[in-house]
Design goal:
This protein has one domain. Helix content is about 90%, strand content about 0%. The protein has twelve helices and no strands. It is flat and about 70 Å long.
């Protein structure tokens, strides 16, 4: 027994040295630094995706247009449509981020073509809203379409192209190409962070659209009509700018191909 107690008295200091010794402390410090670095990378990537997409998606600026399109419907219908638009937008951005570049490569479509065609759709949508009936109160007196009719517009035009348009898709494609170019471990971290950032965009869309009727009540019929017109005009200008970006992309590709052909010859 005395021998066993003597061995125990020798083991206990060794165990304390193993747990609390300089090497153990150094190991814990290294592990803690690695975890902190990973957490910082995740937060940085989440904020990068959110900050890159939020000004392009612009749910705050689109809220008056959503309020105008869903004007006259009760709160439950507006809430349902807002949720559908948020879910559709999240899914569309996720697909653009992770598989969008592969789909475009498969069909041989360039970013310039997406910008040119999508910009045209956005321009036409903005023009249509700009020329809608100006007085919101008059639309309340008219017979509203059924619930199914407004729900059928949740994807087009409310999600695509008004909320998640070609500009948002182009940004998501760019972010996705950066994600796929990283190492294996960074790929998992970046993909997880990008997914969180897009989910945050979806939540922002839902909140802005869900409470768009409060903004409409605050502004009144005339103020809402003016804000809808201004927002529609901005949307139309954004569509024209996206079209010019697509034309510029085609021009850059043509110049690059011409230089490559000249060098080869």
């Amino acid at each position: 027994m005395a021998a066993l107690s003597g061995i125990g008295s020798l083991i206990e200091p060794a165990k304390r040295e193993l747990v609390n010794g300089p090497q153990a402390v150094q190991r814990r410090a290294v592990i803690s630094a690695m975890l902190m670095a990973r957490m910082e990378a995740v937060v940085r990537n989440v904020l990068l995706v959110y900050a890159a997409l939020l000004p392009i998606v612009n749910p705050i600026g689109m809220a008056p247009i959503f309020a105008g399109i869903t004007s006259g419907y009760d709160a439950s219908v507006r809430r349902t449509v807002a949720m559908k638009v948020a879910v559709n937008g999240t899914v569309l951005l996720m697909a653009s981020l992770f598989i969008g570049s592969y789909v475009l490569d498969f069909f041989g479509v360039s970013i310039g073509a997406v910008q040119l065609g999508g910009g045209l759709v956005v321009t036409l949508a903005g023009w249509h809203i700009l020329n809608q009936q100006s007085d919101v109160s008059e639309r309340h007196l008219e017979a509203q379409p059924s619930r199914d009719a407004i729900l059928s517009q949740a994807f087009y035009p409310l999600t695509m192209p008004l909320t998640v348009g070609p500009g948002s898709i182009a940004v998501a494609l760019t972010l996705g190409s950066n994600v796929h170019a990283e190492t294996h471990v960074q790929l998992i971290v970046s993909a997880f962070a990008a997914a969180i950032g897009i989910v945050m965009i979806g939540i922002t869309i839902f909140l802005c659209y869900r409470f768009s009727d409060e903004l409409q009540r605050l502004l009144g019929p005339n103020g809402t009509s003016i804000l809808i017109r201004l927002s529609a005009f901005i949307v139309m200008c954004i569509g024209i700018q996206i079209m010019f970006n697509g034309v510029n992309q085609f021009y850059v590709e043509m110049v690059h191909n011409a230089k490559a052909a000249a060098i080869n010859h």
